[in-house]
Amino acid sequence: MRVLVTGGAGFIGSHIVDLLIESGHEVIVIDNLSTGKKEFIHKNATLYLLDINSPQLEEVFAKETPEYVIHQAAQVDITKSIQDPTADADTNILATIRLLKCCQKFNVRKIIYASSCAVYGETNDCSIHENFIVQPLSFYGVSKYTPELYIQLNHKFYGTPYTILRYANVYGPRQTPKGEGGVIAIFMQKALQGEQPIIFGDGEQTRDFVYVKDVASANLSALTNGTNEIINIGLNKKTSINKLHALISSMFLDSALPIYLPRRNGDIQYSRLNNEKALQKLDWKPSYELLEGLRETKLFYENDCSKGGNS
Ligand SMILES: NC(=O)c1ccc[n+]([C@@H]2O[C@H](COP(=O)([O-])OP(=O)(O)OC[C@H]3O[C@@H](n4cnc5c(N)ncnc54)[C@H](O)[C@@H]3O)[C@@H](O)[C@H]2O)c1
Q1: Measuring CA to CA, which residue among 163, 176, 162 is closest to residue 212?
Q2: What is the pLDDT of residues 208-245, one digit of tens each?
Q3: Which atom of ligand 1 is nearest to the CA of 35?
Q4: Which residues line ligand 1 (CB under 6 A)?
Q5: Are 187 and 197 in contact (CB under 8 A)?
Q6: Residue 254 pLDDT class (50, 70, 90 cuts)
Q7: Which domains does the chain have, with CATH numbers?
Q8: Is the pTM of this model over 0.90?
Q9: In a 3-state reduction of DSSP, which class is residue 297?
């Protein structure tokens, strides 16, 4: 199948592109390389170096006529979304509306949208189902949620099928320490450099960490499953930031104690995504437990560090 991946040079998008190509699909990438890297893109993918907000988006659709669109491109920095909500909304909301227009015009068979656990906001310490109330704590959470509504109404008015995947905290090779959920990338890099990592709050906040290859396989599965559904992608397991730090420290010979700073605006206390729906509707299950994923991630950062990189 011919699949267009927006943000295919990014952390998650590039793993999706790899898996699609390994699975025999033809892949077109649109990316402006604002946070993505050209070297992450599989050599068999066709790259359009383009902002998804640009008028040329339609020309790419006309030329490539993708059958499926996997939409990963986004402004992913929560702090930036609070400092500059207009820029955040331009990329995350307006560009998605433009993309939907193209999907409709060029009869795309499905759009698969990367949403986020950030849409849920503050919850109790529980397993979060898809039907939980959404109450984002940041503009980023709002700008990831709003396109969900557009995608669903677009389906109602114009018929474009969709699958909305709400990712938990994704981690793995190629992650930059800046984006959403970059805590593992930060801890790994600090450990390698022998520097003290910063923990915001008391470190007892929990996250559900899902390995990037499992997220890529969920996207692959969504090409043919889970149509017109909103589906959580996570392990349904919680790990506190203190526990995470201890796990990562134990993987390195010398690692420094963390510095604790006050909790940041927009940070949630608990996050654990119920994944029963993904197991049923996507015929998907995560293959990586946290420790296994951390080991693969560590190899990547060691290799990157030895090349003098700063991914
Ligand atoms: N990383 C996580 O833990 C996580 C969790 C939940 C949801 N998500 C979502 O997953 C998606 C991918 O996130 P990521 O962590 O890989 O981030 P990333 O920053 O590595 O990837 C985003 C990609 O989109 C590109 N991009 C950004 N703005 C663009 C624009 N206007 N036009 C074209 N390309 C543009 C960037 O260059 C980059 O390659 C995002 O939609 C994000 O909201 C990520």
Answers
A1: 176
A2: 999 999 999 999 999 999 999 999 999 999 999 999 99
A3: 37
A4: 7, 9-13, 30-36, 51-53, 72-74, 76, 91, 95, 114, 116, 144, 167, 169-170, 179-181
A5: yes
A6: confident
A7: 2-170+210-233 (3.40.50.720), 173-207+237-272+288-306 (3.90.25.10)
A8: yes
A9: helix
